[in-house]
Amino acid sequence: MHRSDPAQPMPMWESAIILVVITLLGIFCFYGVRPYLEKIGFNGYSAYLYSISIVFIVMILWSVIAYIREGNQISLKAFLNRTRLNRFRPNVIVWSFGLGLLMFLSTALFSPLISRSISGGFLPIPNGIPDYINPMKQQSISTIKNQLISNEVLLLIPVVLLLNIVGEELFWRGMIFPRQEIIHGNRTYLVHGAIWALSHLFQYWLLLPIFVGSIALSFAIQQTKNTWVGIIAHVVNNALPLVIMIFIPT
Q: What is the secondary structure of 161-229 as a DSSP string?
């Protein structure tokens, strides 16, 4: 670990508490807030986007509070140093785009296996989950695009993507990873990757591709000591469907 990192060690019990809190918050927002918003009149897409944004906003606020509680200097330079956002090197681009493509392709590659597991009864999924994230009701990109336009949420997606990327990368890679690395050393990518993957338990049927992407991303972070890798990879992975959607006619 770089000596300039002013992070404090994070024992495993603290990592476990964070995992439980974020996981339960995700479950509450997806299975509680989202249906409630639909019940009071929000369409399915906006209900999902607004509810999941709560998790990202909590991560951002948690990161800021944790930074202050550590007693760090209140300055942009110190904050960027603590969260490893001030070390933009040429290898960042290579790691980021390779990682982003791996994360994007892993979902596509595992999709048939997930669908067969669900249809075969090996992986039951909850009733009432939205069609656009239901592996058994896969829709074309053009169909989803038309639905987003008709539900007037197309402009909301970039905002939620920004919250997603800033929240997760600032919280997990910026604040938590450096602290875990003091304790776990070269094995941190395995510990961090597994914890981050499990925090997505609210969509447990996607855990296999998420786990692959989580371990790969954590390994890249450990190799580069650079949070920009996660940010750019997250942009590539999450923005590719949106970019493809833009160029598909309605």
A: HHHHHHHHIIIIIIIIHHHHHHHHGGGHHHHHHHHHHHTTGGGGGGHHHHHHHHHHHHHHHHHH--HHH
Residue 160 lies in a domain: yes
Rounded to whole angstroms, how far apart are CA atoms 67 and 55? 18
Closest residue by Cα to residue 141 from 154, 123, 128, 152: 154
Q: Which domain holds residue 31?
A: 12-247
- Is pTM beyond 0.85? Reply is yes
Residue 4 lies in a domain: no
Query: Mean pLDDT in runs of 10 for the chain (250 residues)?
Result: 66 97 97 95 91 97 95 90 84 87 86 86 83 72 70 82 94 96 96 97 92 95 93 85 66
Residues 138-163 pLDDT 10s: 666 677 767 777 777 778 888 999 99
Number of domains in the chain: 1
Is 202 among the domain residues? yes
How far does the chain reach from its first CA to its final CA, in angstroms? 50
The answer to whether residue 172 is domain-embedded is yes
Q: How far apart are CA 78 and CA 85, in angstroms?
A: 10
Radius of gyration of the chain (CA): 18
